[in-house]
Hints:
Blueprint (H helix, E strand, L loop, with lengths): L3 H38 L4 H23 L9 H23 L2 H8 L2 H13 L5 H17 L12 H24 L5 H21 L10 H26 L4 H8 L2 H13 L5 H20 L9
Amino acid sequence: MAARIPDANWKSSQNSLGMLAIVLTVVAWAIAANVANSLFLVGVQPFELAGASAAIATFGLAILDSFIGRSHAKPIDPQQFALGLILVGLVGADYLAIQRLPVAVAIVLLFTAPILVVLWSAFTSRRLPSQSVLVALVLSVCGVILVSNLLASNVEQINWFGILIGLMTAVFFAAYIVLSEQVSVTKETIGVMLKTFAVASLFWISYQLTQGIPWTLLAPENILKVIYVGIAGNLFPYLLFFWSIQRVQAQRAAIAATLEPLVAGVLAWVWFSQTLTLMQIIGGIFIIVAVTWMQFQTTGPSSFND
């Protein structure tokens, strides 16, 4: 029994470090979302920023891998390639949603992803979700309706395309969470992230070749912000997120990640005076409560069939 105590302490320490990494990821993503929004306001296009940030992250990861990586000469496998393509959809849709919606709304829609992760787990395990999970699902759907302002008297003012993109971002993020947990068993954090970002960079470079030179993106007054989004919005947070999933379960990681809408919303209010209606705030609370409650209900082995 005594021999197990160090193992238990080590596992607890790893879980704590993993959760700390997720909190840092959330803060970095929230700040980067607002910096990205400031670039969109001056004319930078979402896909231009997605490509530039992916290229910057790839370059940074290549430097890290050359010093402390362990993946030299190992070819990319199909799962890592798929993760790179999912990253393309995730970042591209995320920036497009931020451009068309208030930052807090875009991120709240993004964080319906954990609901999708649990439903996917229920589908693959061929077990019906428990009543608690179904209640969380209903609560999150109500939250999406309120956050999206679908009950507004003037329906014409609703940005339907932005809402659709925001929900698509959640689908990509759910796929990213699930596949990241599968790929993370390799323990090659830097090497795997380098390969996935390289795939994303090649895609965006190919796209940009068809669009011409992004002059607004390359304007001197925007360069530092672009570099910041590439490093603090892509390289470090995705690296931390992938590293944290190696230490805590993907579903549990979503508990801490639900802090991002709050942090991003406060920053958007301070920087851009973006405000939400009372109903949107209530909807956001519904989603955060639903996701957090659901995570606590799905930590056991029989969580889907109580």
